[in-house]
Write a structure and sequence with these properties.
Chain lengths: ~300, ~425
Amino acid sequence: MLKIEKLNKSYGANKALTDVDLNVSEGLVFGLLGPNGAGKTTLIRIINQIIDSDSGEVYIGGELLAPKHIELIGYLPEERGLYKKMKVWDQMLYFARLKGLSAQEAKIKIKYWLEKLEMDTWKDKKIEDLSKGMAQKVQFISTIIHNPPLLILDEPFSGFDPVNAEIIKNEILELKAKGTTVILSTHRMESVELLCDQVAMINRSKKILDGSIKRVKSIYRPEVYSVTLDHLTKELPTEWISKEDEGTYSFTLPLSGKAPNELLNELMQYGQVNRFQELIPSMEEIFIHQVKSTENG
Amino acid sequence: MDKIWLVIQREYVSRVKKKSFLLVTLLTPLIFPAIMGVFVWIALAEEDSQALRIIEVVDDNKLFFLESSEQYAFSFSDASPEEAKQLVQDGNRYGFLHIPKFDIKDPGGISFYGEENPSMSLISYLENNLRKKIEEQRLFESGIDPKIINDVRTKVAIKSITLDEEGTETVSDATVNYVIGFVAGILIYMFIFIYGNQIMQGVIEEKSSRIVEILVSSLKPFQLMLGKIIGIAGVGLTQLLIWILLIGTLTTIVTGFLGMQMPQQQAMELANPEMAQGLAQNTEMGDILQVISGINYVQIVFSFVFYFLGGYLLYGALFAAIGSAVDAPSDAQQFMLPVTIPLVVAYMGLFVFILNDPTSTTSFWLSILPLTSPIAMMGRVSYGVPFWELALSMGLLILGFLFTTWVAGKIYRIGILMHGTKPGYKTLWKWIKTNN
């Protein structure tokens, strides 16, 4: 769906993107991760043709990026904005028509979405009279109103209360099920694991890692196991710092070069093993580890 | 193109629908006839309600006579000034006019005492009558019959006629030309300022509320800028059109309604009967009508619309650029100066040079250079401008407009996405130079 090759962009002396390659397959939710200022927004703006790259190519559906592709993209910027004095209905109609829908099509779509998200009664309200969460919903609908095959969401959950965040999350998954490709840019790693099929990490203008969640997680495995034991038959070594709760001992152990089964065998000598599970690093930990390792090497 | 049209529509509709637009548009033209009407009404009411005012006149020369009117009665007496003053203080007299004995060649010391300040018209009525009597007296003493003077008095009016190459004669009048240039110039000046500011505010609103990021992901920044400028121009033209229609009908109604009573003329008669008579003869009015019918309206209207729009578009682009470069209206000040100066220069030039001497070198250049020509040329058009000058000025204005739009587009495109930085002129120059 989206392919990016050797993309470069700098603002004066500051590099915003350095030789970034990306490949986003159709129908996936793709997470674009990185701290603030890493270059995510620049990358997104280039895809949206808001700014031009210095060098490199962007392809959408195999074609070199061109003005006509604007209509294939739905874009929710990190900084939300609506006309405060405009009514919900007029606002949605304006955005929909700017994305190339005819007035008639737009009206049908707006009606559908207003009903779906139970916002029908607000349609004649001005944005300034809505709560922040309501305005965010209006913004979200405005983004997807033209059924774009590619959806780019920059920090989509910021500003939503948990209930509305859940609604939006479900809408994203529903759109994915219908074949929409979604690019999700965020610096909040925890939302990624739930939604994304693939991720790319960007730090200081460079892509430092990409692939499926499983692959990314396999790159950095600290090989640490979480263990709980009870019915102790033997005193535990003192270097295994454990927490005791009514005869149950919990602690973590690194493999230290052993195979998992060897470690399990060893543990069984100490008592009844109730839990033996590899600790999977969070995206956050992977990210921090990756940043450190790229900076050191 | 479709998208520019959508932007134009939004900008236009969202502004025209506002209550403030409706109020300003409908009330402004009402204000002038309303003020006029109130004044006329007050004057009429006062005249009706006023009791006759008696003025005590003590003339030590025994020379003057003042005719009483509906408002004022003059009572001549030999009372001493002290007695007369007492009459005023007691409220028995409205005022007391004291004409002490004086040398007819150097009259002085005439005083009016009253409990309140007398009106201008009363004082000028008194002054005129006394002056006339003194003049008559002096003529008489020099042995000239005052009647001869009245017979000799003549009025000279020069009819100014312009001749063109084909020998067509057009009656023109400097005053009418002046008024046309004056009104047209001021209208364009005001329009550029008011609506230029609206463009700037609109751009700042979109920028600071971050709508712009969504908008430019759907259309080119240049389309957005142009759509906004044109949309707001539509608002201005709508307002202007409504004003012209409203002012036209209202003044017709007001003057038609009050025309019969015309209290100004009465006041004038009281102050200066001769002037009123002169007006009554209506010969001047006839001349003015002839002049008005001789004006090349097609040219003036065409020029007005052209410079009105040209000037607005030229400056509108600059206002849009300023709006895009700043985060808040208060930051815009630093960039406003270079935009404001040429406008003010043109405005001052209109009064100082152009309307007084439309063909001077300064007037010529002011009306040719694109930054000042929209205001300056309108001051000249009614006086008649050679075709090549008009063509040059208009051509340069089009080029100027294309240039400022191009420059503004370059600044706009980068400026609208910049937040939190306060750019200086250096930064703006960098933006103009960068390609995307």
